Amino acid sequence: MKLDDTQLLALCIYGETGKKFITGQQLGVASCIMSRVKNRYVGQTLKDVILFPGQFPCFQVGNPNRLGLMAIAGGWDKAFQKNKHLRECYRIAEGVMNGDLPDNVSGATHYRRSKDPTPWSEAKELVAVIGDFEFYA
């Protein structure tokens, strides 16, 4: 992928939250990713954190969203013009990276859809719930 950091963050937000916009959910995902970058959770850079194997389901082989995200990445300009949800994710990514949008999930480094069982959630503290997403620190 030859995207800049803002585009990559926007693509991850888009891939993780889908086209169903719930106020604050996309910001929560972006804030969570940025907390991982700040804490050097699995790498030194935003790209390291987002693309580290096993971190974000939307980029994992076998995920039904992955091929669509790769197509967006390969034709970013066209996708950006046509897709209002992608443009909103970009606006959020830009705001978080510039410090213009606040962390709305209290420094969470993990999240999940509440219906998805995860072995790690028992060891973490639930710090926010937005829509069907739970955020953990």
What does this structure look like?
By secondary structure, this protein is mainly α. It has a single domain, classed as Arc Repressor Mutant, subunit A (Orthogonal Bundle), CATH 1.10.10. 47% of the residues lie in helices and 9% in strands. It has helices at residues 5-17, 25-38, 46-51, 66-74, 76-82, 84-98; strands spanning 110-113, 126-130, 133-136. Strands 1-3-2 form a 3-stranded antiparallel sheet, covered by helices on one side. Helix 1 packs across helix 6, helix 2 (25-38) crosses helix 6 and helix 4 (66-74) packs across helix 5 (76-82). The N and C termini lie far apart (29 Å). The model has no long low-confidence stretch (mean pLDDT 93).
Our Rg estimate from Cα atoms comes to 14 Å
Counting DSSP E segments of at least 2 residues, the number of strands comes to 3
CATH architecture: Orthogonal Bundle
What value does the average pLDDT take?
A: 93
Produce the secondary structure layout.
Elements: H1 5-17, H2 25-38, H3 46-51, H4 66-74, H5 76-82, H6 84-98, E1 110-113, E2 126-130, E3 133-136
Antiparallel strand pairs: 1-3, 2-3
